[in-house]
Amino acid sequence: MSEDRFEYALRLGDNALILSHRLSQWCGLGPALEEDIALTNIALDLLGQAQLWLELAGAREGQGRSADDLAYRRDAGAFRNALLVERPNGDYGHTLMRQYLFDAWHIEALSALARSADAGFAEIAAKAEKEASYHVERSAGLVVALGDGTLESHARMQTALDALWPYAGELFVGDALDARLAAQGVAPAAESLKPAWDAATGAVFAQATLTPPAAAFAHKGGRAGRHTEALGHLLAEMQFLPRAYPDARW
Amino acid sequence: MSSEWPLWEVFIRGQHSLNHRHVGSLHAVDANQALHNARDVYTRRHEGVSIWVARASDIAASSPSDDGPRFEPADAKVYPHPSLHDEAGSA
Amino acid sequence: MYAQLVKTSHAKTPEQMSDEERAFQARIDRAEKIEPKEWMPAEYRRTLIRQIGQHAHSEIVGQLPEGNWITRAPSLQRKAILLAKVQDEAGHGLYLYCAAETLGISRDELIAMLHSGKMKYSSIFNYPTLTWADIGAVGWLVDGAAIMNQVPLQRCSYGPYARAMVRICKEESFHQRQGFDLMTNMARGTPEQKAMAQDALNRFWYPSLMMFGPSDKESVHSAQSMAWRIKINTNDELRQKFVDQTVPQAHYLGLTVPDAKLAWNEEKQGYDFSEPDWGEFYDVVAGNGPCNKDRLDARVRAWEDGAWFRDGLSAHARKTRERVAGRIAAE
């Protein structure tokens, strides 16, 4: 039972950790100062959430692993994030589209988790939900503005949507663990979040004059630790110092 | 040169304050973005509760040296028009 | 400092001044703040644009050496601290660009001058960050030096610049403390960590001293800046103060300042120390530092790659206004 909770907290924490890391790669390199600051705020919010989820995971696992241990000492096969968040940044449009697809799911997931039968999950989710509602408002606004901006901004956002759509589906495909936790009232069933996500994203894409691909195919594997090639490189960079100096404290 | 985003002035009323204070400026395309940007730039340390933004070009200001007889009265715009490229470029 | 080598002419004597200039100088001498709408000598405006603009550029370029280690920050807490610090620097750049804009120049024009090399940024940011300890050294030494200059500038004569300095100083003290905390952790850590800390001090000591600009005796003209209270202290004054404050901190860390001539001078109640290599300073300022090209390339690329984003948002805002106007017209 607590093995399930450990796993589920890892999924949430790894999503936040990896996505935060991707966003932090833009620091100092964004298209405008105000935007740079705003994106870094999102990265910081997600990093804070990652710390909370990973601490909870360590507590549920009961083997004394800290959030840092989990972040810095697991290899790619032990990570449980969705594939969407590890996709490379690409251009800024790609980054914003990835963010919107994630944010639209995240707000639904956190809103359900805030009612979790597990108080630890509910508490973190309630805090994160406030941040996520700001994030999704922001990313939706940017998708609309850039989708319905210039010809070039429209083209870039459409290209990004086409490229990332095949990674969004995984968020709504539940496995046996999801089903067990849903039955206990601890977490929402993955599929249950799809109707609201479809409605919200549909409205935003229409306003943005963007067309989601018709194809229903979804890449999967993140929850099982089968990731894309991108994750290995990300972790090699992220984990270098603690692995090179295993006795050091930072 | 890119299409510049207009300049906005930002006023924030903190949690325990009665009044909005001018805290600075930023660039944004419209009021909505200005409010969002102001929240990110000027309340990063949770300083603010209420945020007002106004286009810098909409702000009228009094002339502080109205009582100085020697000087030309300044016009109503807050900032002079940007045209000092050459001045700043020289040593 | 962050704005090094800002040249002005010799300070005019009262006899050489016009009526307006004399009245202006009297205001400065009374410690009145000059605000954007008010009369000011053309050279005062020009000098401030250069000084504030270069200060702003320094904050923005200064994000890059620290940004270099964000993805490799070795703990979640250190990563959050570093992200927040770099974000603060973006904010400082923003406050300063806005202060410069009150003088009649746009942010886009200032950025164009940075990118074309017509305006500079502080020499320190042309040095590389090679280890995690360098992040500590940057906070401890570079921010330490910056604070030395920024605290007195809170009293400078130009209102918007003084107010930006007040805001910046509040945030900067966090940064220096966090950098020093990182250095402390390294200096008391494993032998490799301690060696990293000493190596960082070795490489950042003299470049930090250079931040204050050349020695007063061979200095560029700054008499007019001082008279106008755009510059408050001389380069040597600030450098001496920095050394006197920092050497005891290095001793506390158990690290050695890389200066064989460093010695306490009882008579002057301060340290005697070796001057940095001014040849190296001028080389770096001329564009031949280790990172000049990379830093500027990164900024130019970020700006150019971001043009479609800025234009896209402008276009959407315009469309929105037109639609609203269209709806109103139809009523």
Could you describe the 3D structure shown?
The complex is a heterotrimer of chains A (250), B (91) and C (331). Chain A is mostly helical and 250 residues long. Chain A has helices at 2-24, 33-61, 67-73, 83-86, 92-113, 119-147, 151-168, 176-183, 194-207, 229-238, 240-244. In chain A, 53% of the residues are buried. The mean pLDDT of chain A is 97. Chain B is 19% helix and 25% strand. A three-stranded antiparallel beta sheet of chain B has the order 2-1-3, covered by helices on one side. The longest helix of chain B is centred in the middle third of the chain and has 12 residues, at 31-42. By secondary structure, chain C is an all-alpha fold. Chain C has helices at residues 19-29, 42-61, 63-67, 76-101, 107-116, 132-153, 159-187, 191-210, 223-227, 235-253, 278-288, 292-305, 307-330, and strands at residues 263-265, 270-272. A two-stranded antiparallel sheet of chain C has the order 1-2. In chain C, helix 6 (132-153) packs antiparallel against helix 7 and helix 7 (159-187) runs antiparallel to helix 8 (191-210). Chain C is globular and about 75 Å long. The mean pLDDT of chain C is 94. Chains A and C meet through helix 2, helix 3, helix 6, helix 7 and helix 11 of A and helix 3, helix 4, helix 12 and helix 13 of C.
